[in-house]
Amino acid sequence: MDQWDKIGSIQTIIRGAQPEWISPAAPLILLPQQQPRQFRGTLEQEKEYMNQLEKELSSGVVKEMDNVQVYNPTFLVPRQDGQLRKILDCRKINLLTQLTHFKMYGPEELRQILQESNYATILDIKNAFYHVRVSPNLQPFQRFQFKKKAYTYLGLPFCWRRSPLLFSRTLSIAIRSIREKWNVKIQNYMDNKIFVNQSKQQHKQLNQKNITFISNRSRRLSPTKCVTIPKKCFQYLSWSFQTQSIEVTMTQTRRRSMKHNLKDWFQMTNESQIVTIRSLDQKIGEINYLRFQFPKISLWMNAINNLKTRAIAKGGWDASVKLYKQILGNLWTILILIKQIKLRQVKDRTPDLILQTHANKNGRSQLCKTSNGKQWTLING
């Protein structure tokens, strides 16, 4: 707490995560959830769940409770690395919680601060959301049961609607302090933080200070995901960056996944299968994410976007839509782009010619400037 007080954010930390209901009657609607749902899974999954629960208890993320009014389902889901993650099912709470939109910084914002031959390091916070405390007002609605014992979360659960917002808001305070303290280029996307510097030696020194600064504020780093050695070639948010040439391309893992998913959609379209509009919208979002490498990829999605728009106008977001073969051309073009492994030059180009026009009562003049410093004036009467 002393470390947070030094950067003027002690009140934010003490206040913690507060409930933001859509109406005063929302908590009363949740009261019928008084019957706990038993954990379902294999014996091996039950052991894994127990191991994760014991770690949460020992680290103070979860505590055992006696009187419980609202129970939430809980289960295990697979992560991208193949391991299992313990999840609290907050869907009913999320329906009654206000949704607040906020901006998240991605690869485009990194491009704006990246310069030629920059070095970069990446720090990843372990169990990021757990570092934000849950207020006593919210704890009664973050409870669950396992083996006839009741527990509640003291740290933010992963699936609560406001968890990303509150974590980003808390982390932004620390990032702002780092920028002011060491005048360093830094950008974050949730639990990932990337530091950029022109000097490798200076970067090493600043990176160690940043690690100490974050660790002193009860933030544990994930050693397997952190890149602490300054590099000119690095991967960030599923993109491979090369600062020597200021080029970017998607990682091999993402390319493989995108090709596999597109081939599945080829098959579903050829079979004229029926899918939900939300699943179609999710696929469109995945393709739009590639605009960072292929800025004009949206031009090849006219048929897919038209299919989604007509389906929403007809049946709403909860409806389903039949995949027509008219979208095969879009899917095929996008697949070809992904297979090309084309690097994108993300450095802003310097214009070869600048034309300035000046108008007055005597006529109009144009001043031309070239990139090599030459200039001349054209006068029109």
UniProtKB/TrEMBL annotation:
Residues 58-241 form the Reverse transcriptase domain. This is Reverse transcriptase domain-containing protein. InterPro entries: DNA/RNA_pol_sf (IPR043502), Hepadnavirus_pol/RT (IPR052055), Rev_trsase/Diguanyl_cyclase (IPR043128), RT_dom (IPR000477). It comes from Streblomastix strix.
